[in-house]
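Run log, item B.
One chain of 135 residues. Sequence copied directly from the ordering sheet:
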Amino acid sequence: MGKKEVLTRTGKKKEAIAKATIRPGEGRIRINSTPLEIFTPEIAKLKIMEPIQLVGDRADKIDLKVNVKGGGIMGQSGATRTAIALCFIDYFDDPELEDLFKEYDRSLLVSDPRRKLPKQPMGRGARKKRQKSYR
C-alpha cells in the first residue's frame, strides 16, 4: 500500500458538491466541522458511513474532513460518500478496494451528472404547461 500524506477529492450529486481531505490520524471524521457521530438526519449519516464501513479497520488510522455545499441534505450525503470513497481508493492505492466499491454500489465512485431541466416557453417549469381553456 502506497501511503500519501494528504489527499483531496471531490464528489457531486445533483447541485451538491463535496470536497474531502484525507490524512493520517486517529479516525476522526467531520462533515462541515460536525463530527459524524452527531450528524443528523440519521438516514444521511448511514448513507455517508457506507464507504467507511466497507473499508473496515483501516478507517481508524486516518482523519477525514469534508466540506459540502449546495443542494439538499440527501444530495449532500450522496456527494460526501462519493468524495470519501474516492479518497480511500487513492490513499490506500488498493485495486481490490475499488472492485469492492464497484460491486457494492457504482455511485460510490461516479459523480451523478443529472441536472435540472431548464424552464420551457409557455410553461411554469420544465414539463408543466398552462392549461388551455377553449376546449
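Observations after the first pass:
- The chain has one domain: 7-108.
- The CA atoms of residues 123 and 131 lie 9 Å apart.
Flagged for discussion on Thursday.
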